[in-house]
Structure formats: structure tokens, C-alpha cells
Specification:
The protein is of the alpha/beta class. The protein has a domain of 291 residues: TIM Barrel, CATH 3.20.20.70. Helices cover 38% and strands 15% of the residues. It contains 15 helices and 13 strands. The strands form 2 sheets. It has a 10-stranded mixed β-sheet. A 3-stranded antiparallel β-sheet has the order 1-2-3, covered by helices on one side. It binds iron/sulfur cluster (2 copies). One iron/sulfur cluster binds next to helix 11, helix 12 and helix 14.
């Protein structure tokens, strides 16, 4: 299939070639690009590289839309024991060493992981005893339990921190409340202010039925000194709200272009991942690393692909002791994934954006009552709007501005190098 699309921007014609993942002015030659599974610049590592530790399934907030049912994963409060974490960390380090690698990533997740800060410290202290291992640390937090002592520790170890923030005070407080019913916004802002290096922070917006107009409040987040923003749509969003979000997404891409032109650089990771994928001609063979180079361990010591599968026993891979069986399951899943999204799903096969997309989120497909490789039309549509808008944005940017933008990303990302599931 000829995976090409023409874009006319400011009277100029550009061709996006989805097979080689390149964008060129009309008349330029398509770059030649090898189509192998393990091409050098593929984003996907096929060896286990990252572990997400769900160190507790309790939370001090009770956000209505939480996929983990208010952090609990439908279970009683549970805190991971150090012995469980140690077994998982040893498995990760052994897997890396077997493949002659010395870089790993550990991501701390909950519930609210800062409720189990002691365990975070203990795990980091343990990992740091491995002199030959370089570990990148990540944390996903609601931001309400940050203290000077915790921030000092997180900054010292250069944690890449995803902090939930649903926009400005009004939007954030609508869902992100304490059990008392009070909103958590003021405490999150106090926590953010404790950071001297705010480049470590990534504000995570959940687009829900109350805050679809993201373009209208991105500046409120940037004003807090945060330079990285990631958005994800709540699966339960209504069709009407989804439409509002799509309109707002287009406005946000327009705003992003204008801000770049005025030299106001920041990172919306949903945009930068597409921009860098195209700039580096990367081919995404899966949408995320889950189940291959990224695994999750639940508080009770069970392996799953990603935190969203925790507690869904049909998707339990193995218990933490059974490392050989985990390896076997990874190999089986790799085979199931075949070579690329087009081989898993006919719609992806016929899609221009196959290789900047990577295919559907397995969890979203399952939650929508489908087979794990089937498409969820709403998400698929959203991605195509995003890809199209970002390609137009790249075409519009003068070469100098494109360079400056990539340089900005590089400098920002050098301050935190963890491996995300996406
Ligand atoms: S999930 Fe949708 S956008 Fe992505 S490759 Fe498949 S068809 Fe294209
Ligand atoms: S994209 Fe889906 S399957 Fe992958 S890590 Fe995210 S929720 Fe899990």
C-alpha cells in the first residue's frame, strides 16, 4: 500500500510518507528506510527495561473518574512489602545484565505512591548499591503529599514526576477531591512550588466531561512554572464532550504554533512524541511498550502488562517469584504482536499513520468490549486529528523554528530520562 498523503500549507505542497515516516516538500525524494523489526532508530526496546511498581492501592483522594476505582483496584488497602519490590528489582536488573545493558527505569505508582514513601526510599537505596546499574526513576502522584523532605529526595535522584492536574482550580477541583469533599488544587500547587527544578514535572490532564476545552487553560498550568504537559481522555467521556475536546485540540495545536513563533517553547508530550517520531523517521511498531520492555508489579506481587490491567485476573502474567514464566509470557506476547500494527489489525494496515501511531491501546480496546488489537473508533479518530494537525504544524514552521523546537525538547528531556510506557 502507498501510505502517502498530500498537505497544502500556505500554498506549498508537502508529502507525508507513512512508510518511511518522512515529511518532505513536494519534489524531494522519499528517504530510504529499512523495514526491519529491530531497526536502529525504532523506539521500541524488545528487552525488559522498565518496571512499574504499584506500591500501594490506597489513595488520599477519591477522584470520581479514577480507573483504579479511587486508587483501590477494587481491593482492600494494601502496601507492597520490600521483599516483593526487591524480587522485582532483582529480576529487572538480571534481565538487563543478561542483555548486556546497564540502564533500567523504575516507575513508582499507586494509589497514591507517596503514602508509601518509605518504600520508595528503600527501593532507591537498594538499587543504588548496584554500582554498574544506572537507574532512571519515575513517579506518578496526585501531588498533595509533597513535603520539603520528599521533594529534596526526588530532586536529588532526578525523578521524572507525573503530577495530576486537570487544568485551573475550578476544573481540577471538580473531580480531584479529598474524601471530605474538598478540592485538592491548593495543596497540589503548594507541592509544585517546593520544586527548584520544575523541569522534572509533567502535568497530566485527564480530559473529562467537565474540562474538554484544554486550549483555554494550558496557560494556567504553564504559569505554575511547568514546561511539560500530557493529556489523556477519560474513557467515559460523552460524545458531546468529545466533540468539544476535538475542537479544542485543533485550537491548542494552533496556539502551540503561535507560541513557538513567538519563541515561547514548552512541551505538550502528545505533540512532541509525534514531532520527534517524524523528525527521526522512527517507526512505532506498538503504541506502548507494555508487555514487552515495560511490566507492572501489583502491591500483592503479581506481574501485569501495565497498571491499568492490575486486578484484572484474565490479564495476570505471573506471580513475582516465577521469573522464568514471566519471560516466557513476554516472548509469547511478542509473537502475538507480529511485526507491526498492520499485521494485527486491518484498519491499521490501511491507515496512513500506522507507523507514527503504533496501533490501539490494548487496555482501551478491552474496556470497550473488543479484542485487544481492535480499534476503538473514538480514540482512533482523535489520533488521526492529532497526527494531521501536527504534520500541518511542522509544515508551517520555518526551518529555524523547527530546529529551535527540537533543541528545546532535547535540553528539557536531558533533565529527566525515564522510560514511559508510551
Ligand atoms: S489505531 Fe487508528 S490511527 Fe492508529 S494506526 Fe490504527 S487505524 Fe491508524
Ligand atoms: S497505552 Fe494502554 S496498554 Fe499501553 S500502557 Fe497505556 S493503558 Fe496500558
Amino acid at each position: 500500500m502507498k501510505r502517502q498523503k498530500k498537505f497544502i500549507v500556505n500554498g506549498e505542497e508537502y508529502i507525508f510518507d507513512g512508510t518511511s515516516v518522512s515529511l518532505m516538500a513536494s519534489g524531494e525524494k522519499t528517504s530510504t528506510h529499512k523495514l526491519s523489526y529491530r531497526e536502529p532508530n525504532s523506539q521500541r526496546s524488545s528487552n525488559l527495561k522498565t518496571l512499574c511498581l504499584v506500591i500501594n492501592n490506597s489513595c488520599n483522594l477519591c477522584c470520581e473518574y479514577c480507573f483504579a476505582n479511587k486508587g483501590k483496584y477494587d481491593k482492600a488497602d494494601e502496601f507492597m512489602a520490600f521483599e516483593t519490590a526487591k524480587k522485582a528489582i532483582d529480576f529487572l536488573i538480571n534481565s538487563a545484565t543478561e542483555h548486556s545493558k546497564n540502564k533500567i527505569t523504575i516507575s513508582f505508582f499507586g494509589g497514591e505512591p507517596l503514602l508509601n514513601f518509605k518504600l520508595i526510599k528503600k527501593c532507591v537505596e537498594y538499587i543504588e548499591t548496584f554500582e554498574k546499574i544506572k537507574c532512571d526513576y519515575m513517579l506518578t502522584t496526585n501531588g498533595t503529599l509533597l513535603t520539603p523532605e520528599k521533594v529534596k529526595f526526588l530532586q536529588y535522584y532526578n525523578f521524572d514526576i507525573m503530577i495530576s492536574l486537570d487544568g485551573n482550580k475550578e476544573f481540577h477541583n471538580f473531580y480531584r477531591k479529598y474524601h471530605s469533599g474538598n478540592g485538592s488544587y491548593n495543596d497540589v500547587v503548594k507541592g509544585i512550588e517546593l520544586f527548584t527544578n520544575k523541569n522534572l514535572l509533567n502535568a497530566r490532564i485527564t480530559i473529562n466531561n467537565h474540562n474538554p476545552e484544554i486550549h483555554s487553560y494550558v496557560d494556567d498550568i504553564l504559569e505554575l512554572g511547568i514546561k511539560r504537559i500530557t493529556f489523556a481522555v477519560d474513557y467515559n467521556i460523552s460524545a458531546e464532550t468529545f466533540y468539544l475536546f476535538m475542537e479544542s485540540l485543533k485550537k491548542l495545536m494552533n496556539k502551540y504554533y503561535n507560541d513557538i513563533m513567538y519563541g515561547n517553547y514548552y512541551d505538550i508530550t502528545n505533540f512532541s512524541s509525534v514531532i520527534t517520531t517524524i523528525a527521526l523517521h522512527q517507526r512505532k511498531l506498538t503504541f506502548c511498550n507494555a508487555g514487552i520492555s515495560y511490566l507492572t508489579v501489583s502491591a500483592d506481587g503479581k506481574y501485569y502488562r501495565c497498571p491499568r490491567f492490575v486486578g484484572k485476573y484474565d490479564f495476570l502474567l505471573e506471580i513475582v517469584e516465577e521469573t522464568d514464566k514471566v519471560k516466557e509470557k513476554i516472548e509469547i506476547f511478542k509473537k502475538t504482536l507480529k511485526n507491526n500494527p498492520g499485521e494485527r489489525n486491518i484498519e491499521c494496515k490501511n491507515c496512513i499513520y500506522t507507523f507514527i501511531c503504533g496501533g490501539m491501546c490494548y487496555h482501551h480496546a478491552i474496556m470497550a468490549g473488543k479484542n485487544e488489537f481492535e480499534n476503538v473508533p473514538q480514540e482512533c479518530y482523535q489520533r488521526q486529528i492529532l497526527f494531521e494537525g501536527i504534520i500541518e504544524l511542522i509544515c508551517k514552521l520555518p526551518t529555524e523554528k523547527r530546529r529551535e523546537l527540537l533543541l528545546f525538547y532535547t535540553k528539557l528531556w536531558n533533565t529527566m530520562k525515564g522510560d514511559t510506557p508510551l
